[in-house]
Backbone:
């Protein structure tokens, strides 16, 4: 990518990795706390290529996309390295990857149509998202490091990250 703004050229490169297809989606019921409400937790199934190193970004999308933003306890993105994945991934909870809040509980109801999106991440993009997540953990406490700028692949002091991803998705209606 090359962008010229006010006479300054900003350049960035990223490699688009392949992403496996999602075979299916299911949901399990989770109870966050004893006596509390039951939540639906999305799980996915897919074949994980074993002959290469892969990183993934998972997103949960519904037709009322802003509903997930109403709660500060829901992080709609999760990143995951394939280092511990089996050749066939069975029922991976999409929040099992790194996210600022650990485990998310989604406000999903029966009748909702949901889409799980799985994107490939280059190692550089994975490290960028990982550093953003760590910013949430660095709360200024005595035993936490000072927040730092995330790594970038943009030239000339630009902030952010140019990412190229393959994407696969699958939708399901909660019955």
Residues:
């Amino acid at each position: 990518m090359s962008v010229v703004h006010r006479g300054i050229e900003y350049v960035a490169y990223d490699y688009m990795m392949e992403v496996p297809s999602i075979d299916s989606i299911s949901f399990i019921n989770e109870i966050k706390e004893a006596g509390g409400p039951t939540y639906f937790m999305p799980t996915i199934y897919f074949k994980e290529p074993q002959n290469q190193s892969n990183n993934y970004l998972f997103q949960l999308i519904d037709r009322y996309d802003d509903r997930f933003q109403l709660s500060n306890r829901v992080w709609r993105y999760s990143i995951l390295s394939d280092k511990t994945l089996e050749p066939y991934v069975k029922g991976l909870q999409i929040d099992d990857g790194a996210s600022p809040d650990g485990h998310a509980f989604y406000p999903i109801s029966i009748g909702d149509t949901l889409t799980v999106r799985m994107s490939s991440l280059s190692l550089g993009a994975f490290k960028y998202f990982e550093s953003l997540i760590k910013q949430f953990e660095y709360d200024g406490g005595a035993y936490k490091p000072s927040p730092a700028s995330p790594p970038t692949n943009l030239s000339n002091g630009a902030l952010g990250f140019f990412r190229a991803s393959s994407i696969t998705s699958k939708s399901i209606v909660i019955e």
The chain has one domain: 2-173.
